[in-house]
Amino acid sequence: MKEDLITESLVKDVAGGLQFNFNCCVNTETGENYAFNDEMLLEADSLLSRCSENGRWLGEDLMRISKWKHQIIVTPPNSDFCYEYMEQFVETCVPKRDMLYVRLREALNKKGPFFHFRRVIESSDYRIAWLDFRNTMFMDYVRDILRNSEENTDYWDDWEPEFKDDLEE
Fold first, then answer.
1. With contact defined as beta carbons under 8 Å apart, do 156 and 66 qualify?
2. Which is the most buried residue in 82, 99, 113, 117, by most CB within 10 A?
3. Which residues form the domain of 115?
4. Same domain, yes or no, for 151 and 134?
5. pLDDT tens track of the chain, all 169 residues?
C-alpha cells in the first residue's frame, strides 16, 4: 500500500476494529476501510434488515467492498501474538519488585491467561498504561500489515449472497 495512504487515522480505525475482533478491509487505492465480522458474512441474508450507523444497509456495504479491485484484508492477530504482547507489557512496564508483576506473571501462567490477566490488570493502577500499550501494539501490527502485505484479490470470490440481485437493482 502506498505510504501516503497509511495515515494515523486509518491505522487507528483499523486497530480499533481488530480489538473488537472485526476483520478490516482496506482499499489500497483510496485508504477507505470497512470493518466486518464473520457473523456478518455468515448471516448475509438477514443483513437487509439491519442498518449500519450511517443508515446504509450493511448488505450494500458488503457488496460495495467485495467489488474493490485493490484491497488488503487485515484480520485480528492470533492468540500467540496477543499473549506475547501481554508478556511484553509485564516485562517492560511493571517493575519486578512490584507485587502486580508477580500477580500478572501468575495470571499468564494459569489456564485461561487472557481472562486472568484482564481481571488483575483491570483493578490495578496500571490499567491505563496497559490500554495505551495494547493500542500501540495493535497500531504497530496494522502499520506492518499495510506496509508489507500483498493485496487480497480473491478474498470475496466465494462470497455470493442470495440477496445480491436485490441490491444491484
1. yes
2. 117
3. 79-142
4. no
5. 788 889 999 999 999 999 999 989 899 889 999 888 776 665 554 544 454 454 455 667 777 787 888 888 899 999 999 999 999 999 999 999 999 999 999 999 999 999 999 999 999 999 999 999 999 999 999 999 999 877 666 666 665 555 445 444 4
